[in-house]
Design brief:
48% helix; five-stranded parallel beta sheet; alpha/beta; single chain; binds 2'-deoxycytidine-5'-monophosphate; three-stranded antiparallel beta sheet; 224 residues
């Protein structure tokens, strides 16, 4: 059987992980899995159902029977509905950390994520991929960047997608999510011991992608 590889890219909010992970996956012909989109999809489902995303007992009622599909072209389906755009709105971004801190929700999504990585080579980005979801990943990257730099990237991304945002709101949101994500009890945002830290504050996307591809080649011998 052909050997499969798992590449884990973790790091704080808006560190540019998804853009980079997508390109790395494309260069290697691996499947890209955006785990943040999965937490966002659950958050949207909770809000849509009129439930309180800060209340665990209420929020977990959306789980039974719920389906999340990540399509090749980046489309995200939640229970068959295209939620690609709505999961990036401030309403969802502002509430997703509460949902991501709920253990029953994490366990359900981690099961799905492991299943996805089981049979194919993946580039998976998130917060706990190297520490918890795929502890045996052959390559683990911990991607960081300054708060200002991350807020600017998220702001530009929202503008390009036509999502109305203010810079102040983005900075606040990034700081708030960093805090909640790294202080939750279960599988918090933390660099895995065997992860390679990569500070991308002064790097452009191309440079980050190339740096990660070099690390992958060094660790696995796999060439893009
Ligand atoms: O990467 P993102 O901004 O789309 O992530 C959305 C939220 O989901 C973020 O607040 C942290 C959380 N998350 C997580 O807890 N674990 C993951 N593996 C991925 C995301």
């Amino acid at each position: 059987m052909k050997e499969t590889y798992s590449i884990a890219i973790d790091g704080p909010a808006a560190a540019g992980k998804s853009t980079v992970a997508k390109r790395v996956a494309k260069a290697l012909n691996y499947t890209y899995i955006d785990t943040g989109a999965m937490y966002r999809a659950v958050t949207y489902a909770v809000i849509k159902a009129g439930l309180d995303p800060q209340n665990e007992e209420e929020s977990i009622t959306v789980l039974p029977g719920m389906t999340i599909d990540l399509l090749e072209d980046g489309t995200v389906l939640c229970n068959g509905e295209d939620v690609t755009k709505v999961i990036r709105t401030p309403l969802v971004s502002g509430n997703v950390s509460y949902i991501a801190a709920m253990k029953p929700i994490r366990l359900a999504l981690v099961d799905m994520q492991r299943e996805l990585a089981n049979k194919r080579s993946v580039v998976m980005d998130g917060r706990d991929i190297g520490t918890y979801v795929l502890p045996d990943a052959q390559v683990k990257i911990f991607q960081i960047a300054s708060v200002e730099c991350r807020a600017k990237r998220r702001y530009d991304e929202n503008v390009s997608k036509g999502i109305p945002t203010s810079m102040e709101d983005v900075i606040e949101d990034v700081k708030k999510r960093d805090y909640i994500d790294s202080h939750r009890d279960f599988a918090p945002l933390k660099q895995a011991e065997d992860a390679i830290p990569l500070d991308t504050s002064e790097m452009n996307i191309e440079e980050v992608v190339n740096a990660i591809l070099s690390i992958i080649e060094e660790k696995t011998g796999v060439k893009a």
